[in-house]
Amino acid sequence: MALAGIFVRFWGRSLTYVTRLRYLFAVTIPGVAFMFVSTFLVLVVSARYFLWLTAVMFLIVVALDFITSYRGPFRDMPRPKRLLQSAALATILLFVYLFGSMAATFPAMINTVGDNITVNGEPLKRGNES
Prior knowledge:
With 130 residues, the protein is mainly alpha-helical. The chain is built from four helices and two strands, in the order ααααββ. The protein has one domain.
């Protein structure tokens, strides 16, 4: 998010880094709050619908980011520019969320995948195992 604060500079006026970062965090608050609450749905949803639920949750978060930026920091811009800026910011934040999610789960995937590798139905032995 801090890197997005450096590169996202289309707020319509010249802002300092700290102010841009504040705007970004203000835009993300509704979406992050929704994601926090909706994450508990994963506990009651079967694995069959997990991917579908995750995609719907990300779409809702993108819509919340779009609406928040449209009605918030971009409210002084003309309507066409405001729509474009809000869509661009929502897309950028989606990539930030996806990258953060992958970065958070990557170490766990590496740790668990290494324990479940099989060759011809037999578990793969590590170098120090006999």
